[in-house]
From TrEMBL:
The protein's name in its UniProt record: Alpha/beta-type small acid-soluble spore protein
Pfam families membership: SASP
InterPro entries in alphabetical order: SASP_alpha/beta-type (IPR001448), SASP_DNA-binding (IPR050847), SASP_sf_alpha/beta (IPR038300)
Function: SASP are bound to spore DNA. They are double-stranded DNA-binding proteins that cause DNA to change to an a-like conformation. They protect the DNA backbone from chemical and enzymatic cleavage and are thus involved in dormant spore's high resistance to UV light.
Lineage: superkingdom: Bacteria
Swiss-Prot/TrEMBL GO biological process terms: DNA topological change
GO MF: double-stranded DNA binding
Length: 86
């Protein structure tokens, strides 16, 4: 199955990957989902994981995506505060 998540600004891929790694507490964006899964007590294999429950997949993806959104909002607020002060 292909990845349906399209980045509206392809040039942002590198920064989004760095953000993903940061919110997951790892230095490698490719390890982010495994780190979140481990924190949730969900076993993920490297490669195919089509056998896990949809609920478990949602816990991993939802946690990772939700934390990324929270961090982006925090960054935007900080940027607006800095702009208003300067």
């Amino acid at each position: 199955m292909s990845n349906k998540n399209k980045i509206l600004v392809p040039e942002a891929r590198k920064e989004l990957d760095l953000l993903k790694a940061r919110v997951a507490g790892t230095s490698n964006p490719n390890e982010a989902k495994y780190e979140i899964a481990k924190e949730q007590g969900i076993h993920l294999n490297k490669g195919y994981n089509g056998n896990i429950k949809a609920q478990d997949a949602g816990k991993v993806g939802g946690n990772l995506g939700g934390n990324m959104v929270k961090e982006m909002i925090k960054m935007a607020k900080q940027q607006m505060q800095n702009k208003n002060q300067g």
